[in-house]
Amino acid sequence: MELLDSAVERGRSGSQSPAADWQGADAACAGLATPLAVLDLRALSFNAGSLLRRAAGKPVRVASKSIRSKEVLRAVLNQPGFAGILGFTLPEALWLASDPSGIFTDIVVAYPTADEHAMRALATDPAACSRITLMVDSTEQLEWMSAVLASVAQVAPIRLCLDLDSSWRPSVRGRTVGHIGVYRSPVHTGADAVALALAVSGWKNGAGQLFTLVGIMAYEAQVAGLQDSPHTANKVTDLAKSVVLQQMQRASMAEITHRRADVVAAVRNIADLEFVNGGGTGSLELTTTDPSVTELAAGSGLFGPTLFDGYSRFTPAHAVGFAVPVVRRPAPGIVTVMGGGWIASGPAGADRSPVPVHPAGLSLIGTEGAGEVQSPLRGTVADQLCIGDKVWFRHAKSGEICEHVDALEVLDGGLRVGRALTYRGEGKAFA
Questions:
Q1: For residue 57, is it within any domain?
Q2: What CATH number is attached to the domain comprising 267?
Q3: Based on the structure, what is the number of domains in the chain?
Q4: Residue 229 resides in a domain
Q5: Structural contact between residues 238 and 230, judged by C-beta atoms closer than 8 angstroms
Q6: Among 46, 54, 118, 344, which is least packed by CB within 10 angstroms?
């Protein structure tokens, strides 16, 4: 699969994103068994260009959890400006690192691991040791890894990245009054980071250095992963929320930019850092202005799911959607589709549900929502649908859609031009 260079350049220029053509997707996929999912090549290419424009020259590490397709990952990494993978499990990283294409040579696992088998496999594989970096945020994790590797003939030091807590803790008169962001790393201050960096450098085994610290990651979830311009039926409430959210995000970015720079400077006195990673799809143009950050991370923005419909700074193209068939007609104005309950992770709510987009005018029923086996839909257009007709949805988050299908049907200009296997289609499922 090749990205369209002209579409990437259109995304770089900031021109209007290609309009989603769900009717065209329906025609292109006529006769295919459902459920199925599609990937529009021109929309993907536009989104890739948009991410690069917003990154303003800093390399973008691709978050694999948002893609979950080797073929798509290869295609994106072949575009200048994208460099490396931000993985989500160590078994996934080992699998990618062993890919015969040789393209997955720089993989940072974004979350700590507790997989003993995978740790031993990493420690005894010279190529994997050179290609994979693990995430840590405590000496307890170092102790666990050391114990696991005690009986292993380790071939090289394990590459580590320190995870810096990027949540915002506003204070009044020196007293913390809240926690805005996610609960991940306990490493929040420069002192925390230096203590952990010293612990990493001091850990040795019989053969020498056990670990080497090569990077720092600081993901501003309260900015990158939070819509600052929500859209609901209440425009007054939406406007008020947007004002508050945008003020919070400005204050949060100012705080983490200052704190991250101090942490990076302090840790560089101890370790020769290769990279400092920051940001996500929702914050690229903000994080890239931080001089201490050497690279950015993004993944979901390549697919453009519904959770990115409420951002004021960018508008991705709708590159991915899925279809399920009509199987019932329980009442006038209502049809039931098979499955459809592809609920995204995160706090339960309507914004985590898939959204029906074609035929236009259908909506989920509040008392049932999107179901595990069936989903009733209401709308005047329902009476025009027949048993077996496809109803198309957009998913709330990116990579999770690939957990439901073996391949993405690749569309280009209204034509189906191939298939891109998902991790599932290659027999892999990484928790």
A1: yes
A2: 3.20.20.10
A3: 1
A4: yes
A5: yes
A6: 344
In a domain, 183, yes or no: yes
* Class of residue 161 by CB neighbours under 10 A (exposed 0-12, middle 13-18, buried 19+): buried
The pTM of this model reads 0.93
Would residue 380 count as lying in a domain? Answer: no
| DSSP string over 321-345 | EEEEEEEEEEETTEEEEE----PPS
Contact present, 262 and 190 (Cβ < 8 Å): yes
| Phi, psi for 185 (deg, rounded to 5) | -75, 145
In the chain the first and final C-alpha atoms are separated, in Å, by: 27
Tokens of 83: 């460099």
Token pair, residue 26, equals 């329906």
The answer to whether the peptide bond before residue 157 is cis (omega within 30 degrees of 0) is: no
Which range of residues forms the domain containing residue 152? 40-300
* pLDDT digit string, tens, across residues 335-392: 999 999 999 888 888 888 999 999 999 999 999 999 999 999 999 999 999 999 999 9
Q: What is the pLDDT of residues 81-113, one digit of tens each?
A: 999 999 999 999 999 999 999 999 999 999 999
User: 257 by DSSP, 3-state: which?
Assistant: helix
Would you call 148 helix, strand, or coil by DSSP? helix
